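Final paragraph of the annual report: two paired records, presented back to back.
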Amino acid sequence: MRTEFCALSVVLDGACSIHDGCYTDAKNDFDTLKTQVESGANERKKFFRAASLAIAHLEFLVGESNTDVVDEVNTSRYHISVPDIAAQQACEITQPVWKEFLVPSMCEAGCYEHHSQYSPINMQGQEQTTEASIGACQHRCRLVDGCQHFSYQSGGGGCHLQDGDASKVSDENAVSGPPFCVGRLVTGDEGTNVCPDGSSKLTTQAACEVALSELGLTFRYPISNSSYPSGCHGFSMGDSIGGAYLNTGYFNSDAVGSGMAQRRPICLRSQAAQ
């Protein structure tokens, strides 16, 4: 129940962010198309007006008209009326009323790190956005290739994304975390073989298979190889990797393996850290 609840909570927190982003993208496309259509219509009006004046002048020159003056040219046939796009409707999704008595704040405590953020504040190609919740900021991180951390300003809703080069720093008004966490599951940084503070590696293949399933990943294979990171690791958890490894993970029973690119350790937050 715990895992299912936390997964639902994250989805609900991120739903309005997706709604707002879709509307913004659609409106930008509409505005661009509207400008192009109106520009084309205005060019046609100019051409029709110029052609009417030229014809009147020719008729005057060949004697078919006693004047080359043209009354106001009617270009209404080339007028295109483009309707305004519908106003954005407010997205309001309330967490289920049973959240508080189920286990208060259980998802946040097992994943988010309060009073901290990552520096540099924005990864390359990303700027601050304003998000409605911590979960919405985390969801944004999951959608950006290479995002390994997010930082959320609890005062104004500022959401920042960071890659693996960022370092954690103290900030009383911020909350930070990884792109994925479900209940007590938390992921470490890509390319490392180290679990976040307060968590530990999964020690069995069975536990790894369950964890991968809860994170929406497929267990690929068990191995025992000192060249690979030890423990439970997932591919493509917000990272860029393709082919057969996409959305999969594995368990390495070897206790020596070090970190490797495009792999994240999947760890279990201790009860004390909850």
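The closing record of the year follows.
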Amino acid sequence: MRSNDLAVSTVRKDHGPNSEPSTSLSIIVPVYNEQYLVQSSLRRLELLGDSPLLSRIKVIIVDDGSTDRTPASLGRFRRSLFSDPVQGKFQWLFLRHEGNLGKGGALRTALNYADTELTVVHDADLESIDLGIGRGLRQAAQLARRLRAAGRLAVSACFM
């Protein structure tokens, strides 16, 4: 992929201190022609901000060359982040492929930006994720802490 084929913008909002050391999580969101669902899908992730198990949540959205109004929907969502105080632990990264590279291409692009202990994929069409991240988070966070203590790095997790 040529560097001019990817548009990047990021929003990060910090707030008060965290209560205790915890785990960092990247959520990769590949998006293609999801103008009607993408904002709702991203809003669902906000419940993770209440978790004491997570110190940082990086959401990496890759619009894979959508040809509908998905870019406009993502723009509205991005602008809403500036006025929403709930976003403290979150870092939102918005990427866009100029052409469609497929889900695999979107995942590969996003993985270049995932710099957390755990990484999961959230489909923007609300198809593959329920609140399973929340159900498996405690076990994954414990595993990440044990690996960190042993000098190893947990790079990915799958919640079903």
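The first strand starts at residue 6 and ends at 12. This concludes the annual technical report; the extension proposal builds directly on these records.
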